[in-house]
Design goal:
Blueprint: E1 3-6, E2 9-17, E3 21-25, H1 36-42, E4 47-51, H2 68-82, E5 88-93, H3 95-106, E6 111-117, H4 125-138, H5 143-149, H6 151-154, H7 157-165, H8 167-174, H9 189-196, E7 215-220, H10 230-237, E8 241-246, H11 253-256, H12 258-270
Parallel strand pairs: 3-4, 3-5, 5-6, 6-7, 7-8
Antiparallel strand pairs: 1-2, 2-4
Helix pairs in contact: 1-12, 2-3, 4-9
């Protein structure tokens, strides 16, 4: 895979396909492979860009607290480097949806549509502080235990049960998807702490009304990490937005229900292709 460097930061990325650009921004602690099902589907239809955020995978992991502004600047520098500066369909999941919202406001002329998967418009400080307690537990677990620790948060009960009882299925998911598979280039304890810092002051509730791009808000009906009523509020506040909820899906619905995720995203994007 190619990489790009700026200011002593190296970002691992892929660029595939042709046509209008669809840029994927990953969630917390997940590598670009979290989008494998989407990359496989969209590479025949569009130009696909995905990358490892700082702190995960093969990208640099500087040991200091990260901020949303740093994640935004990483994305801007990467897109400038590969020459994609307008007409972007920007798709982010979880933390990546946070980055995507802020990016669309900061660089509105670059973004054609916005696709927010499992998003939120703010992150309670209490939750960020609770994360630190969780990460303190993680450092005493081996890699496979660490992966399984996240199952209840990331997936529906049915998908979690299958992962726990079907070893072949677990291995299939694990080899590529880095929420299920932090077994390759796993985040270290310091990486958890540094990424968590970026959430502490995230609050878009007063500014999401200023997002001008056509926006798809996509959520799972069984997302345990979603703040109750939050996605509905986002749908009401973002002027040109539509909301789709995948029945039975958890937080990582793009892995759990890839066909339905791809269908919904493609339908939305097609409506806005030039």
């Amino acid at each position: 895979m190619p990489s790009f460097s700026y200011n002593d930061i190296e970002l691992n990325y892929i660029i595939e396909g042709s046509g209008e650009p669809l840029v994927f921004v990953s969630g917390t602690f997940t590598k670009l492979q979290m989008w494998n099902y989407q990359i496989d589907f969209f590479r025949e239809k569009m130009t696909i860009v995905a990358f490892d955020n700082r702190g995960v995978g093969k990208s640099s992991r500087p040991d200091f607290p990260y901020t949303m502004e740093l994640f935004i600047e990483d994305l801007k520098q990467l897109l400038d480097y590969i020459g994609i500066t307008e007409g972007i369909h920007l798709c982010g999941s979880s933390m990546g949806a946070m980055v995507s919202q802020k990016y669309a406001l900061k660089y509105p002329k670059m973004i054609k549509t916005l696709i927010l998967c499992a998003p939120g418009s703010y992150y309670p400080l209490k939750t960020s502080e609770q994360n630190l307690l969780t990460y303190n537990i993680l450092k005493d677990l081996d890699l496979e235990q660490r992966v399984k620790f996240f199952f209840p948060l990331m997936y529906s009960r049915e998908f979690k049960k299958r992962l726990e009882t079907d070893r072949e299925f677990f291995d299939e998911i694990s080899k590529d998807m880095n929420f299920c598979a932090q077994l390759v280039d796993p985040p270290l304890y310091k990486d958890y702490i540094n990424q968590n810092e970026a959430f502490k002051n995230f609050d878009m509730r007063d500014s999401i009304k200023d997002i001008i791009q056509p926006t798809l808000i996509l959520s799972g009906s069984k997302d345990k990490m979603s703040i109750p009523g939050e996605i509905q509020s986002m749908n009401e506040e973002i002027p040109n937005s539509e909301l789709e909820i995948i029945p039975g899906a958890g937080h990582a619905f793009n892995i759990e229900f890839p066909e339905e995720t791809n269908r919904i995203i493609w339908k939305f994007v097609q409506e806005h292709l030039s």
